[in-house]
Write the structure tokens for this entry.
Amino acid sequence: MIDVDDLTFVYGKHTPVFEGFNWHVETGEAWAVIGPSGCGKTTLLVLLTGLRHPSGGSIRIAGEPVTRPRPETGLILQDHGLLPWATIRENARLGLKIREFYGPDGRHAPRGERLSRAAAEERVQRWLERLGIAGLAQKYPQQVSGGQRQRTAIARTLALEPDLLLMDEPFSALDAPTREDLQELTVELQHETGLTMVIVTHNIEEAVYLGRKILVLHEPPNREAHIVENPGAGQPGYRNSAAYLQQIETVRGLLGGRA
């Protein structure tokens, strides 16, 4: 699904963030990316989106070089990215509305049949119901909680039926109970849809709960992919297991006590 080959990336004349870096993600895998501040976590995600380009090497997704944002990639950010003047339903439908404007051109939307307005509305409604926010459809973002705003952002993204989901610190601004609730929801959705998922986080516990594989980055330049296999991630009861606590200590050790 994702092939990062001999990647080099540098901002201006600074130390390269990545130098000769290689990483591979299989279709359907759930990855967490963690490391200290300034290590390149968000930079890697931005490179995967196609919003920035490597200084050297290449990135391919589904066999195609990433030269621009691809319509099959979904992105969820920490700040939700909702329009304050639009209702929850309108925000959830925004991506499909943009695709309706451009049509299935292969650049702004996947190639294939044009989605009718009725089909788009039905798809949005289905996700609003699945995410438990259908009753809030006519409210505005400022009228709902942070967790409900993030659920809206998730609905907007999943309504586009992406094959790759990228998440950048999506739950860091939420209180602990809401964060754990959305972590569990994310695991459920990833299992249901079979999405390939990459989530960037600075939280060790979150990385270990969500990522069946964990990519640990260090201070630049990153030349080697340090990977922790974490097959228990997302399983029922995992958060309360000895294996979970052991993996937290493993990742903490790799980070030198930092994240």
The two ends are 27 Å apart (CA to CA). The helical segments are 41-49, 88-102, 117-130, 146-158, 176-193, 204-210, 242-255. The longest helix spans residues 176-193.
